User: What shape does this take?
Amino acid sequence: SCKRPSHEIEAAYKAYFDAYPDSVAVLVKYANFLRHALRAPDRAETILKKAIGISEDADALGAYAVLLHAVRPHDPLTEQLYGRAVKADPTAVNALSNYGLYLSEMKRDYAKAKKIYEQALTADPAHANSCYNYAVMLDSGLNDVEGAVQLYERALKAKPTHAYALYNLAVVCEEKLNDHERAGSLYERAVAAAPRDSLAVADHGRFEARRGADTNDAAQVEKGAALLRRALELDPACATAHAALGEISLNAGDETGAKRCYKDAKASD
Assistant: This one.
């Protein structure tokens, strides 16, 4: 099917508002359209202000909080809106998950974030993003590797193609558990799930090239190099890919090539 032009979609929203000016659900959808499709966060905020003025609706409050989290994360209103969203609906799992992310990333309040994530998973035990966000906090913030692995796996049970969970679990298996066989499989799945994610492609390439170098497997090194070149096609400024190609060149005795790649990595970082 053909995708409708943005101006037609916006015209349809406006026509609906004329007929149903107090429809909070449609206001929220329109705000998300303005933010993501038209890259107009200021206009989205105006719509969301109208929505929460009509009703203390959890979805509207949560959407407004997420918007501020992205554009004005240190605005005190951000946390107030998250709090109002989960008060309006204590089972609003998306708002809870995003609130937990805000608390862990912006406030470093891991104790409160943990309670919010547990509330989210009580509301929906199979909510993949809540499992993933909680896992990231345990992994990066609290260095609870065992707990993080369990939650990454729980996210993947709920959504086997969750690219970020696949990628992060691959990194944990490689760097913290020394389980290279599983890491390789997870990197493969992460790239299959998100083939245009330059960092996932680059880290997969780095992993394959390094494993090939460790085992004197030239074919595996070349597989890694091909992935790294692909990552640079996706993002010419991918520092991970430049650095890994430098390592391959250095291992091959090409010091000039290695210096060039490391210079490009430094310029991209």
User: Anything to note?
Assistant: The chain has a mean pLDDT of 95.
